[in-house]
Write a structure and sequence with these properties.
Radius of gyration: 16 Å
Distance between the termini: 32 Å
CATH architecture: Up-down Bundle
Largest sheet: none
Order of helices and strands: HHHH
Number of helices: 4
Strand content: under 5%
Number of strands: 0
CATH superfamily: 23S rRNA-intervening sequence
Mean pLDDT: 93
Structural class: mainly alpha
CATH class: Mainly Alpha
Length: 125
């Protein structure tokens, strides 16, 4: 998947998570989850944009690791919403599935970049 397509996909994920978070009923728990989900979901998109600008493979891997952590945290909060029955499961599951797919893509990218970094190190020896 090209960088531009993944930037768009991660941004759409953030928008969808924000809309879901804002749909939570007004309670103290909702306020907490709302803030956490909005923070980590928007961080996925913002940090992936930064990843695309990385000037070295090492920096790319580092930034991508942050993206992976944030999408995993988003998945946690989405699952928590389901577990607590705060919103209908059918409404949350598509986002939870997207978080899983994004995680798989980002992890695969990190593995590819890590292999590239090892090959570069061998060439420079």
């Amino acid at each position: 998947m090209k960088f531009e397509a993944l930037q768009k996909r991660s941004k759409e994920f953030a928008h969808r998570c924000v809309k879901l978070a804002l749909a939570l009923l007004p309670t103290k728990l909702r306020h907490h989850i709302q803030g956490q989900l909005i923070r980590c979901a928007t961080s996925v998109a913002a940090n992936y944009r930064a990843t695309c600008l990385a000037q070295t493979t090492r920096l790319f891997i580092s930034k991508l690791s942050i993206v992976i952590e944030e999408v995993d945290e988003s998945a946690f909060w989405l699952q928590f919403i389901i577990d607590e029955e705060l919103i209908e499961k059918e409404r949350v599951e598509p986002l939870l599935n997207e978080a899983g797919e994004l995680t798989a893509i980002f992890v695969a990218s990190r593995k590819t970049a890590g292999g590239r970094k090892q090959r570069e190190a061998k060439i420079n020896q």
